[in-house]
Amino acid sequence: MITEKFYLKPKSVDEAVKSATQHIDSFRYLAGGTDVIVNKYQGNEEAACLIDISDIDDLKNVTVEGEYLKIGALIRLDDLQKHEIISKHFPALINIAHEAASPMLRKTATIGGNVLCENRCSFYNQSESWREAVGYCLKCEGAICIATGGKKSCFSKFVSDTAPVLISMDAKIEIADTDGIKTLPLESIYTGDGIAPRNLSKTAIIKNIILPLNRNFKCDFRKLRPREAVDFTSLTTAVAMDDKGKVKIVLGGVDPKPIVVEGTTDTDKNELIKTAVKKARIVDNDVYSRAYRKEMITVFLNKSFKELTNSKIR
């Protein structure tokens, strides 16, 4: 049986959402395509319809509205540094974006796509023949989580590079869907379920990422991976402080969702770190062992607190 294939390229968000509704049973949005196309080659993505949103100009703007900065979802990671206001107020975002993937991929990958980066696992992100040989897992309609042996929960890891830094600075996202526009805290869209890692509807499109201005954030991040280019994260830590003494820790790569711990500059940092380590549900689904990644959370966070308290970086 031959399944009809579709490639659509809408010019507006409304048109894209309408197209998604018409192909609701089997479609994927396509922006930079750095993950979707790879997943199609590996057999992890079988959508019959690709809706390419890369021509929607409304998603390519960086604007200031009142006390907030709006970054369009189609801004490429490599282009973040070209916007003076991002460089001035959120340099950590530019720096972490340039820790993602490789120089070539950053010229294609978008910030919206990175925020929605699919959860990964060393037992899932393989070729179809490899997965068939080792046995299918929960994420591809198998009976067990190969990493844990469990039959109920998938622990594929949350691997967005930019989201931990954005969340640490209280980012929100503006979402367009069939019921209109709404704004949500970025961290609220992640479920903690490795099979369905986000609670957005299938037709939803991120329009903008919204960051608060005039809070004078200081932010430090760390990323663990075998190679500085190409490899997805095994652990990302971000720590942000604002001018009112709020402290926010965010971890990526060690749980199906970002781990968030909040406090103030008066809070014992060792207690904040212990809480972050305790909340992380790390399993052996990565090139680094569970024990090593867990240990490195403490190492990275201590380094970040030292950097933030001893310097004037933002």
Topology:
Elements: E1 6-8, H1 13-22, E2 27-30, H2 36-42, E3 49-52, E4 62-65, E5 68-72, H3 84-89, H4 91-97, H5 103-106, H6 111-115, H7 128-134, H8 162-168, E6 172-177, E7 180-185, E8 205-212, E9 218-224, E10 235-241, E11 246-252, E12 259-264, H9 269-279, H10 290-310
Parallel strand pairs: 1-3, 2-3
Antiparallel strand pairs: 4-5, 5-8, 6-7, 6-8, 9-10, 10-11, 11-12
3D architecture notes:
The chain has 314 residues and is an alpha+beta fold. The protein folds into two domains: 1-51; 58-117 and 156-310, Uridine Diphospho-n-acetylenolpyruvylglucosamine Reductase, domain 3 (2-Layer Sandwich), CATH 3.30.465.10. It contains ten helices and twelve strands. It has helices at 13-22, 36-42, 84-89, 91-97, 103-106, 111-115, 128-134, 162-168, 269-279, 290-310; strands at residues 6-8, 27-30, 49-52, 62-65, 68-72, 172-177, 180-185, 205-212, 218-224, 235-241, 246-252, 259-264. Strands 4-5-8-6-7 form a five-stranded antiparallel sheet. A four-stranded antiparallel sheet has the order 9-10-11-12, with helices on both faces. A three-stranded parallel sheet has the order 1-3-2, covered by helices on one side. α9 runs antiparallel to α10. The longest helix has 21 residues, at 290-310. The radius of gyration is 19 Å and the shape is globular. The model has no long low-confidence stretch (mean pLDDT 93).
Shape: globular
SSE ordering: EHEHEEEHHHHHHEEEEEEEHH
Q: Give the helix tally.
A: 10
Let me know the average pLDDT. 93
Looking at the structure, the CATH topology of the largest domain is Uridine Diphospho-n-acetylenolpyruvylglucosamine Reductase, domain 3
Helix percentage:
25-40%
**Total beta-strand segments:** 12
Strand proportion: 15-25%
Largest sheet: 5 strands, antiparallel
Strand ordering within the main sheet: 4-5-8-6-7
Distance between the termini: 57 Å
CATH architecture of the largest domain: 2-Layer Sandwich
Low-confidence stretches: none
Number of domains: 2
Question: Rounded to an integer, what's the Rg over CA atoms?
Answer: 19 Å
